[in-house]
Amino acid sequence: MRRARSIFVWILLLGVASPAIAGQAAQEQPGRVVDRIVARIEGDIILLSQVRELGAFQRLVEGKSESDDGLLAELIEQWIVQTEATESRFPEPAQSEVDRELARLAAQFPTAEAYKGAPDACAADLYRALY
Prior knowledge:
Layout: H1 2-28, E1 37-41, E2 44-47, H2 48-62, H3 68-88, H4 95-106, H5 112-130
Antiparallel strand pairs: 1-2
Helix pairs in contact: 2-3, 2-5
């Protein structure tokens, strides 16, 4: 009985001391912020990296991007549309529509090589924007 009580006391002490030790260790080692939450919508979140990614995409397609506030507003609007489409069970687009939009995007580039190299340029822009 005495041994069981001793074990219980040790478990209790470790349970109480562990959060304090973990908190002290966290204070000693400064953390690196990897991403930030910039908006919460119902149960979802929008991250700073998503804002930057949309900005990089806009620079790729349009040659410029909106302000961060404008990009956030665009992401919120996309969230609303996506949520409404999901709830209304809106059908997926036909492959012909997807192909037509890809052709329209490709036509914005001067050559096929420029279009094929665009993802690499976008990835480089995105990397610079994020890091």
